[in-house]
Amino acid sequence: MAILEDFGFSRRRDEEAAELLRELLQGRENSLLAAEALLSGRRAVVCGNAPSLSRELEDMRDGEVDDAVFLAADGATVSLLEHGILPAIVVTDLDGPFPAILEANKLGSIVVVHAHGDNLEALKRYVPLLDRVIGTVQCQPPEGLYNFGGFTDGDRAVFLAREMGAASIELVGFDFDDQTVTPRKKKKLAWARKLICLALS
Is this structure's pTM higher than 0.85? Predict the structure, then answer.
């Protein structure tokens, strides 16, 4: 509720988007159990799309990569693929680089698609192109969809990893104090920091 008020979002539009996503996914296999199998008891590395992501990935040793389950927050998918890392899960509200997300999905990544009041057209355009989808919302979830918590792609990925029973959760490519972003993005980063601290506490 506080986030809706802070950004002036419409609860009715969120509910409309949730119903649309439910319809788009109706009759399709739910990948939730597959996601739980990937993450339960494992070391999860959640990748944000900060400018530091590429360098941080390069600094990771082979062993650190091999024993981790990578989750990409939307645009982080591009950098992961460029470094030869296929994210097990991509968390997105479909406002990022869809060709990279589609490529990862075709290679086996589960895509967690988030519905909200501002992405109805993206849902219609892109969801039919994806396989292995989990649908999430930021309102009361209709049957077959989920609300694990979180607001931005990055913190939703953290809440997902926690919900799926990850043994540990590490953050890579997050810069909550990035001064190069718009005021709106700064506000989103502030909420992301607050929510991730809550999820990891």
Answer: yes
